[in-house]
Design goal:
Layout: E1 3-7, E2 19-21, E3 45-46, E4 49-50, H1 51-58, E5 90-93, H2 95-103, E6 111-124, E7 127-130, E8 137-150, H3 168-171, E9 177-181, E10 184-185, E11 188-192, E12 194-196, E13 214-215, E14 239-240, E15 247-250, H4 254-267
Parallel strand pairs: 1-6, 2-6
Antiparallel strand pairs: 1-15, 3-4, 5-9, 6-7, 6-8, 8-9, 8-12, 10-11, 13-14
């Protein structure tokens, strides 16, 4: 099983702020703003509040207009919005990023670990705020093990046509593809094939005290190939993650599978 570290959600370039680590430990990844999509920030909710409300409360100076659309992908949080019957966790990719997944022979059974830019939040006088002096960090917030790959979207089941990559905007893109989650994890059968995680320190990629792209990867990764990286990515005391690229593919390794399993188990603890 290959593991893919997949960068998603808000950052300083897309969205202009970090996604929040909510006070209850929920890792609420904000999907990137994108025009002419079929999901609005105001349609997505967390505990009765729209994502747009939460974004504006955290950042009153946000440049995202009201009634703006977003690219809800990966779509792995079932209760983020009203769902039609037949909803399944899905992830779409296209263009050069999908080409990279194809060249690296990503296939059924491989595991996406989604990571993004996050920052701790707290409630002050019942208002949600980013914690003062809390750093922006990279951390893993969700996962999806590949059950079915739809590279020919003409055979996509009708109940899955809600996904952004099934819309006209992407349908004719080069390499456009949709990944459907497996029903359960093959290596941890009691867990669903896709899901969102709650905060746990083992989900943090960023090394404490350093900028978010400097990671604290375990030593086991030193001799394992990670696409877009090389042995020189290991510096004195940290791993320098690539500034560009969405999909970092880690070669198959029992130790990496064990690492990923621990992350998912820790991230599903109450």
């Amino acid at each position: 099983m290959k593991v893919i570290l997949s960068r998603k959600g808000f950052d300083s370039q897309y969205g202009g702020q970090a996604s929040p680590i909510m006070p209850d430990g929920t890792l609420l990844s904000f999907p990137i703003p994108l025009p002419n999509e079929n999901n609005y920030f105001s349609d997505l909710t967390y505990k009765g509040r729209s994502y747009m409300e939460i974004i504006k409360e955290l950042n009153p100076k946000t440049k995202i207009p009201n009634n703006y659309t977003c690219h809800l992908d990966p779509d792995i949080r079932k209760f983020a919005r009203n769902r039609k019957k037949g909803w399944e966790p899905l992830f779409g990719q296209t263009g050069s990023s999908q080409g990279h997944l194809v060249r690296k022979k990503v296939q059924q059974g491989d595991l996406f670990l989604f990571f993004g830019t996050f920052k701790e939040t707290e409630l002050i006088d019942e208002k949600l705020s980013y914690k003062f002096n809390a750093p922006e960090i990279h951390l893993i917030y969700g996962y999806l093990q590949i059950g079915i790959i739809y590279s020919d979207l003409s055979i996509l089941p009708p109940e899955l046509l809600y996904h952004p990559h099934a819309q006209n905007k992407f349908i004719n893109d080069k390499n456009n593809c949709i990944y459907k989650a497996s029903k359960n994890l093959s290596f941890q059968n009691s867990f669903a094939g896709a899901g969102c995680l709650n905060f746990h320190k083992t989900l943090i990629l960023t090394k404490k005290g350093l900028s978010k792209s400097k990671w604290d990867l375990p030593e086991l990764f030193r001799n394992i190939e990670i696409s877009y990286h090389s042995p020189k990515s290991f510096k004195d005391g940290y791993f320098q993650s690539a500034a560009k690229g969405q999909e970092f593919i880690i070669d198959e390794s029992l130790s990496v599978t064990e690492w990923a399993t621990k992350i998912i188990i820790n991230g599903t603890k109450k």
